[in-house]
Automatic annotation (TrEMBL):
<protein>
    <submittedName>
        <fullName>MurR/RpiR family transcriptional regulator</fullName>
    </submittedName>
</protein>
<dbReference type="InterPro" id="IPR000281">
    <property type="entry name" value="HTH_RpiR"/>
</dbReference>
<dbReference type="InterPro" id="IPR036388">
    <property type="entry name" value="WH-like_DNA-bd_sf"/>
</dbReference>
<dbReference type="GO" id="GO:1901135">
    <property type="term" value="P:carbohydrate derivative metabolic process"/>
</dbReference>
<dbReference type="GO" id="GO:0097367">
    <property type="term" value="F:carbohydrate derivative binding"/>
</dbReference>
<dbReference type="GO" id="GO:0003677">
    <property type="term" value="F:DNA binding"/>
</dbReference>
<dbReference type="Pfam" id="PF01418">
    <property type="entry name" value="HTH_6"/>
</dbReference>
<dbReference type="GO" id="GO:0003700">
    <property type="term" value="F:DNA-binding transcription factor activity"/>
</dbReference>
<dbReference type="InterPro" id="IPR009057">
    <property type="entry name" value="Homeodomain-like_sf"/>
</dbReference>
<dbReference type="InterPro" id="IPR047640">
    <property type="entry name" value="RpiR-like"/>
</dbReference>
<feature type="domain" description="HTH rpiR-type">
    <location>
        <begin position="3"/>
        <end position="79"/>
    </location>
</feature>
<dbReference type="InterPro" id="IPR046348">
    <property type="entry name" value="SIS_dom_sf"/>
</dbReference>
Length: 284
């Protein structure tokens, strides 16, 4: 935790107005979580405007929220898997039914934002790349690795030459060796962000591989490291981050691709079903 920042927000100079005190108290009480906030999310919590938050941060000595985030990240790490509220209060909330109701409402709100994403130009660009690519490579790390592997497996039922890459060979050569044109890397990364994700995305772009990045609102590098960025809401709840929002986006991408490819998907499923029957891995 930055003692310098705490000293600043506790100073009288930065607590003169009501909005000053609101923002100062919020920063002090949420220092651990602050690197993963946005100006909009802070403003929403405090019921003030993002511009008010921005002006306060400039008075604090930072050129916007990203500048403050970078200092906080250097001084403190924050797991994505972390209970963010007081345990006794959360236990009471779950007994009262408030906790589950709040989490459900957060999921509903996130799905509303996902709908907006599905109508965006970025969504159609991602669909076009996933359909037309010569090869699709899917990569992910840590707590989203499992659902990304699920996506790669499901996508392989809609089109050929789909592979999940884990980087265990130390090179990602299957993606980066330049032997095939028209490759696409579909990279999944959410906070707490993986150290390998941004270097892989940048290296892929240098190699001529198109990069689709599925990430959350806390990511600081989507534009510089991807050709298409699909940005979903991050977790603001009292418990650790869940995968429901990411999984919903993946399922909607798959549904869109299935409809677009039509009979091609049916033909591929028939082929794969015949192979499954041949090798006997599935019950009748």
């Amino acid at each position: 935790m930055s003692n310098r920042i705490l000293k600043l927000v506790r100073s009288e100079e930065l607590r003169r107005s009501k909005s000053d005190r609101l923002i100062a108290n919020y920063i002090e009480r949420n220092m651990v979580e602050l690197p993963y906030e946005t100006a909009r999310s802070i403003a929403t919590h405090l019921r003030i405007s993002p511009m008010t938050v921005g002006r306060y941060l400039r008075r604090l000595g930072f050129d916007g929220l990203d500048d403050l985030k970078n200092e906080l990240r250097r001084g403190h790490s924050n797991p994505a898997w972390q209970v963010k509220g007081q345990v006794d209060r959360l236990q009471q909330d779950i007994r009262d039914g408030k906790l589950i109701a709040g989490l459900i409402q957060e999921q509903v709100d996130n799905l509303g934002q996902i709908y907006e994403l599905t109508t965006s130009p970025e969504w159609q660009q991602a669909i076009d790349l996933l359909v037309s690519a010569s090869e699709v490579y899917v990569a992910a790390y840590q707590n989203v690795r499992g659902i990304a592997q699920y996506f790669a497996s499901q996508l392989s039922y809609t089109r050929p030459r789909v592979q999940f890459v884990d980087g265990l060979n130390g090179t990602y050569a299957e993606v980066l060796d330049g032997s095939v044109e028209g490759r696409v890397l579909f990279l999944h990364d959410v906070r707490r962000f993986a150290a390998k994700a941004q270097p892989l995305a940048l290296e892929a772009r240098r190699a001529g591989v198109k990069v689709i990045l599925l990430t959350d609102e806390f990511c600081l590098w989507p534009k510089e490291a991807s050709d298409v960025a699909l940005i979903v809401p991050g977790s603001h709840g009292p418990l650790w981050d869940g995968a429901a929002t990411m999984t919903a986006v993946m399922d909607l991408l798959l549904s869109n691709i299935i409809v677009l490819l039509g009979d091609q998907v049916n033909e591929r499923v028939e082929l794969l079903t015949r192979l499954q029957d041949t090798f006997g891995d599935f019950e009748a």
